[in-house]
Design a protein that fits this description.
The complex is a heterodimer. Chain A is 39% helix and 17% strand. Chain A contains 19 helices and 21 strands. Chain A has helices at 6-28, 33-41, 65-78, 101-110, 143-153, 226-240, 251-258, 260-273, 276-279, 283-292, 306-314, 316-325, 353-366, 389-398, 429-438, 442-448, 507-524, 531-538, 541-555, and strands at 45-47, 52-57, 62-63, 82-85, 90-93, 127-128, 168-171, 185-191, 197-203, 215-222, 326-328, 334-339, 350-352, 371-373, 379-385, 413-414, 453-456, 470-477, 480-487, 499-500, 505-506. Chain B has 2 domains: 3-98, TIM Barrel (Alpha-Beta Barrel); 118-357, HUPs (Rossmann fold), CATH 3.40.50. In chain B, the strands form 2 sheets. Chain B has a 6-stranded mixed sheet with strand order 8-7-6-9-11-10, with helices on both faces. A 5-stranded parallel sheet of chain B has the order 1-5-4-3-2, covered by helices on one side. In chain B, helix 2 (44-54) links the parallel strand 3 (32-37) and strand 4. The radius of gyration of chain B is 22 Å and the shape is globular. Classes of the chains: A alpha+beta, B alpha/beta. At the A-B interface, helix 1, helix 2, helix 5, helix 6 and helix 9 of A face helix 2, helix 3, helix 4 and helix 5 of B. Bound molecules: protoporphyrin IX containing FE and iron/sulfur cluster (2 copies). Residues 191, 193, 234, 238, 241-242, 245-246, 321-322, 324-325, 348 of chain B line the site of one iron/sulfur cluster. One iron/sulfur cluster binds next to loops of chain A.
Chain lengths: 556, 358
């Protein structure tokens, strides 16, 4: 894991002081609220429906037990004893007092954490594959590049007042576990012509009101030129992006309106006159950063583990957990364990301070002190010995964190919605909870296999409903909360936006309609087909019929 | 520091909403360009400034309109020299926010070394010493061209520049460099006190050798206004004058280089008696291809290659710097006797390493 040196420490410390200065000038009236707002947002401070919200970055989702314990401490001391993990590997605190913020930020700085650029019209927390450094199919660990991008984008002089926010995701494998094509820029590590590291670059993805799937702009940018290329992209957009309409300001709109080829020409023009050499990532700096992400000292272990196999036979609950939440690891004798934050009837992504500490203990004891925050609003212990998985499972069960539903129907991604969010049309949490209760039977869920359900409380799409296999969007129908359903979305390397199936439903109808959709899939699926495969084969029609069946019957 | 100004009268004023092409076309003819922000959130001005600077605009760039003190660093680091403030603006806040961070990660248009460079400088000092030793060994007994070629070897990955005074002997070094690589950046310290002959010689020599990247480096306008408004600091404190006009501008101009080629030679001064072709100064590799050359070698080369001569050589000048500090020397005299004549000074400071934080 990356460790701060004196310079990194100075930056976060000075950032806290700068923010304190800004807060003081706001208090004295030297800054108007309009002027202060973007400054506080760039420090992760939102004004929500009922209180301020602080969004803390977990850069590329990698953190350790000391940091997790500090997050627990903050939840307990300054909040109501819990936090909320988001799809962008941030953690949100919903109830901090404005006056506590400097103290919280100082507490974070002590453990090499911050809330810098977790919001605002700037380059946001960079995200990656939750299994980076553990996945079998990876050609290179993307996290050193994420760290380089983090440093480069932090308090960027040219790109801190962009037309709109800018999100970058990086992956190191063919398989996309970080939804890179829904990002403003998605980066995929590939081998360049010279055999060196290069990046395939996608641009113009994004969700929100006008969702777009990112398009390929470059097939192999040499690693040393990555920052120069990103600079050219951001510069083209900063100069040409729309600023007159907030909904048309994202880079996706510029790319769509110019067309990818014209946009590429624009970028190339900037790239040609950039002082590229200055932006070349110094070889030794890249090496210095890479060294922090060297694999932990794995033991030489056999592929199979007797304690693991015994537990499989002895305990069907463990066997289920192992089937659903334990992932293969590139190192023989190790596995990655998904810690689901989606208990039956719970709030997706929420975790209590006690649970945070339990997970921190497990990371320290069993996973080389490493933890990951996942895009799916779950946590991952990336490097656990197979021998230790049963003990980890028992401890998770004790902490109420052993729900064996990773990637299954109740592993719902949901935004905070109207319970917290001032922009919401509708609640998402209670609908997710109702769905989770309705589909709770794990035998049923396992029969269904992997299916992703996403919920957003409004068109801003914080819950990624556009790319859910099944998406649920809260809409406002004459003051009533209604929900629009989509099917066939996908966030991965075959990224696609879902199709809207028909008119929106009242909240109590959502869970039953989704269950009918899933039942229909069970009826029509071909051998070995996952839900998304079936939708791709047959289209949305059969599911539309399933969703509106009872409504039609009632209307008839 | 970003300068703070009031009521700017001169220069062309353009809104940051002006398309880049129009800004560029207009800027070409202007020494002063004022970019007006219509809203502090509208960050186009930062990219406009950065692009103008990177494409070579050297005039004064001033930000105006709706900008916040919290943007002082962003403005400065994107290439603005100054901001126009309304009377009564909170200058203290501007100064505080400008200096809120002791360092920045990313390289930008401003000359301050990025955190990446600073980390590197610390780690590299040791490595560079080893590299200098190795190159001194490998080029022992070889000529100036080989020394330059060794420094430019892409395998070393060094960002190499040259510094030249365009003085009496400068043609030799520049010729050697240009024959290896004509687009090596050549930094010329435009102290503001040069002989006119030096300036015209610079143009002549640049053209004759086909150098494509000669960079003029001037003293910081604000510093000069405070320290030497009447251009006569040399009379009272030549060290301070050289510091203002040479040492600090050079530090800014060369912050991006790993290695600098100079034309210094052992015979020139007592301080240069043990000069080696490769040495390390303040975390930068100094390359002195002519270290072992004598005055006669220089003469022979100038003749053999038929290079243009500095116009003042005919008048008896043999080492040429700024006019106040250079005089002609008699035939028997040491060439550098004509520099800071009558003062206890033999070097201007740019070759001596850091005396204070520049
Ligand atoms: C509770 C306060 C929140 C507010 C006020 C908020 C606001 C917004 C807004 C306005 C957008 C649309 C941006 C655009 O289309 O340009 C957006 C998008 C998004 N937000 Fe949030 N959000 C909140 C919470 C969250 C949470 C909890 C998550 C993660 C679970 C999240 C993740 C995202 C993501 C992934 C997007 C889509 C990005 C894209 O368009 O590509 N946000 N948010
Ligand atoms: S999708 Fe809408 S309701 Fe949900 S968090 Fe985002 S802005 Fe709020
Ligand atoms: S040489 Fe003389 S005039 Fe030139 S900078 Fe030094 S002191 Fe000033």
């Amino acid at each position: 894991m990356y460790r701060y040196d004196e310079f990194d420490h100075a930056v976060v410390r000075e950032r806290v002081e700068e923010f304190a200065d800004q807060v003081a000038r706001r208090a004295s009236g030297a800054l108007t609220e309009d002027e202060f707002k973007p400054l506080r947002l760039m420090n992760g401070v939102y004004l929500q429906l009922h209180a301020y919200m602080l969004r803390v970055a977990i850069p590329y989702g990698t953190f350790n037990s000391r940091q997790m314990r500090r997050l627990a401490h903050i939840a307990r001391t300054y909040d109501k004893g819990y936090g909320h993990f988001t799809t962008r590997t941030n953690i949100q605190y919903n109830w901090p007092a404005l006056t506590d913020l400097p103290a919280i930020l100082s507490d974070l700085a002590e453990v090499e954490m911050h809330a810098i650029q977790t919001s605002g019209n700037c380059i946001r927390n960079v995200t990656t594959d939750v299994f980076a450094g553990a996945a079998e199919d990876e050609i290179e660990d993307p996290r050193p590049w994420c760290e380089i991008i983090r440093q480069w984008s932090t308090i960027h002089p040219e790109f801190s007042f962009l037309p709109r926010k800018f999100k970058i995701a990086v992956i190191g494998a063919e398989k996309d576990r970080a939804a890179i094509r829904t990002h403003d820029v998605g980066l995929q590590i590939v081998k360049g012509d010279d055999g060196g590291t290069a990046f395939r670059v996608f641009v113009g993805g994004g969700q929100g009101r006008l969702p777009h799937i990112g398009q390929e702009i470059a097939s192999a940018v040499p690693a040393a030129d990555l920052l120069a290329y990103l600079t050219a992209i951001l510069r083209a957009w900063n100069l040409l992006g729309r600023r007159d309409n907030i909904h048309k300001a994202r880079i996706k709109i510029l790319v769509a309106s110019l067309g990818i080829d014209a946009f590429r020409e624009e970028v190339d023009r900037h790239y040609a006159t950039l002082r590229r050499e200055d932006l070349r990532i110094p070889e030794d700096e890249a090496e210095r950063i890479k060294a922090y992400f060297a694999p932990p000292p794995f033991e030489d272990l056999p592929k199979v583990s007797a304690p693991f196999d015994r537990a499989l036979l002895a305990d069907p609950d463990f066997a289920r957990f192992a089937r659903n939440n334990v992932r293969r690891h590139r190192q023989a004798g190790y596995a990655s364990v998904v810690v689901s934050l989606k208990p039956v009837g719970g709030v997706p992504g929420d975790i209590t301070a006690d649970q945070m500490e339990a997970v921190a203990d497990l990371a320290e004891r069993y996973s080389f002190d490493e933890l990951r925050a996942a895009y799916e609003q779950n946590l991952v212990l990336p490097h656990v010995r197979l021998d230790d998985v049963p003990a980890v499972w028992r401890a998770l069960r004790q902490a109420g964190l052993a729900t064996a539903n990773a990637d299954l129907a109740t592993d719902v991604i949901a935004c905070p919605g109207l319970d917290y969010c001032s922009l919401a049309n509708a609640r998402s949490i209670p609908v997710a909870q109702a769905l989770s209760k309705r589909l709770a039977d794990l035998d049923y869920q396992e029969k269904l296999g992997p299916v992703r359900i996403n919920m957003s409380g409004c068109i801003n799409a914080c819950g990624h409903h556009h790319v859910g296999h099944i998406g649920v969007l809260g809409v406002d129908r004459k003051g009533e909360e209604y929900y629009q359903i989509t099917v066939g979305g996908s966030p991965d390397e075959q990224a696609a936006l879902g199709d809207i199936v028909g008119k929106s439903l009242p909240s109590e109808e959502v869970a039953p309609a989704i269950q009918r959709t899933l039942d229909r899939y069970l009826q029509i699926r071909a051998e070995g087909e996952r839900f998304i495969d079936t939708v791709r084969r047959v289209g949305p029609e059969p599911f539309r019929d399933a969703i509106y069946e009872t409504l039609d019957a009632a209307n008839a | 520091m970003l300068q703070t100004l009031e009521g700017i009268q001169n220069g062309l004023r353009l809104s940051v909403t002006t398309p880049l092409e129009e800004v560029e076309a207009a800027a070409a003819a202007e020494d002063v360009l004022v970019l007006e922000f219509d809203a502090f959130r509208d960050g186009r001005g930062f990219s406009l400034a950065a692009v103008l600077r990177e494409r070579g605009y050297r005039g004064q760039l001033i930000a105006a309109g709706k900008v916040l003190p919290d943007q002082a660093r962003h403005l400065r680091r994107s290439g603005f020299d100054a901001v126009e403030l309304a009377p009564g603006a909170d200058r203290a806040a501007w100064a505080r926010m400008d200096q809120a961070f002791s360092a920045a990660y990313q390289p930008a248009v401003d000359p301050d070394p990025s955190i990446w460079r600073r980390r590197r400088a610390a780690a590299n000092d040791r490595d560079l010493d080893a590299l200098a030793d190795r190159l001194n060994r490998e080029t022992a007994g070889k000529g100036a061209a080989e020394i330059v070629k060794a420094a430019l070897d892409p395998a070393l990955g060094l960002k190499v520049g040259a510094i030249s005074s365009f003085g009496a002997e400068s043609a030799v070094l520049l010729d050697v460099v240009a024959r290896e690589k004509a687009d090596v950046p050549v930094v010329f310290l435009e102290t503001g006190q040069h002989f006119l002959q030096t300036l015209s010689y610079r143009t002549q020599l640049t053209r004759a050798l086909g150098l494509t990247d000669v960079r003029l480096v001037t003293p910081d306008a604000e510093e000069k206004a405070t320290l030497d408004a009447r251009d006569d600091l040399w009379k009272t404190d030549a060290d301070a004058c050289c510091d203002l006009r040479k040492v600090r501008p050079l530090a800014r101009a060369t912050a991006g280089f790993d290695a600098l080629i100079t034309g210094r030679k052992r015979y020139q001064a007592s301080t240069r008696a043990d000069l080696r072709p490769f040495e390390v100064l303040d975390g930068v590799l100094r390359i002195n291809p002519l270290a072992e050359w004598t005055g006669d070698d220089v003469e022979a080369w100038l003749d053999a290659r038929d290079l243009p001569r500095h116009p003042l050589v005919e008048q008896g000048y043999r080492s040429i710097g700024c006019w106040p500090c250079t005089r002609a020397v008699d035939d028997g005299e040491d060439a550098r006797a004509g520099r800071w004549s009558g003062m206890d000074k033999v070097e201007c400071g740019i070759h001596l390493g850091k005396r204070k934080a520049a």
